[in-house]
Target: Uridine phosphorylase
Amino acid sequence: MAHNSEQVIASDMQNANCDQNNEENGRVDEGDSQELIKSTRYNDGSVKLRNPNIELMDQDILYHLALGSGSHDLHEMFGDVKFVCMGGTPKRMETFAHFIMDEIGYKLPAGTQLQDISAFSYRYSMYKVGPVLSISHGMGVPSVGILLHELIKLMYHAKVKDPIFIRIGTCGGIGVEGGTVVITEDAYDGLLRNSYELAILGKIVHRPAILDKRLVRELKSLASNDDPYDTISGKTMCTYDFYEGQGRLDGAFCEFTETDKMEYLEKLRDFGVVNIEMECTIFAALTHYAGIKAAIVCVTLLDRLKGDQVMAPKEVMNEWQQRPQILVSRLIKKHLAQMGRLKSLASTPSSIKSPRRFKLVQQESEAHE
Model:
């Protein structure tokens, strides 16, 4: 069994290398790039959906965000968004919202506080800090996929122009010490395919998992020599599972040995994988398919070549999780400064178009618990 497994991995590594060579530096040829822009952007640069059904609907309810195109003035609420930042937990993204508010000098009106816009969804948490959205995406591919569908539709309804999506997360390192910031260059699945696989109407569809190379280089350039930790870039592997799928020995089930695990992790390292998480392929694939520039910045919580369990104290992990947020804030501040938008901003008032439909959206979202 081990011999057959090695053959499969070796074959997939060869295929992945071929895909990488064919799609180096931006990944798509000029013709494909122009076609992608035509499919995903209107002439003014605003987001265009690859779904003609949406514009025919009387109201598009974004169930898991507790928003609706008929109940809320989405353009008024979100039309100024430039960055959509997301991470696993509501608490982390609330913390990031407060952090980025200080970093960009965003000012709330006296007597007000940041509010969870999607509180009535009971699924995700969303905070808006001027041109930045901070949203929790839950854990794993399915949760991120649902959120991305509705966020991309939100960008469309709000007529947002050229948004940038960034995932801020945690991961396990491969030969990388805990506390290291990792910028994903390429996203691979558990079979080392540079794509996201899903079944649509009974047929398997593969979508290229492509991230923006310019953003990778820009993020790397913003790492400071004064940072008391390393910032690296490399290949990231996405799994559908935290335990067996990541080669852990400490799950409820395990049918492989320590030797099997180490051989597998060494193969990943030889291939260039520097970290493992559970969201990168679908995040890269759906943002690319939508024509949205995207990046992934994570911090490692441990080196998987040295163990399976996260042993760092909580206060240490809390500090580690601030590290990718700091790097992302540097990118946001740089872009806003270039746009002349890095200044104190006042939040917008309530943007409810129809109180009746607003109540309906709340009820529909609550029904999808």
Observations:
- The longest helix spans residues 314-339.
- Residues 50-348+356-365 form a domain with the Rossmann fold fold (CATH 3.40.50.1580).
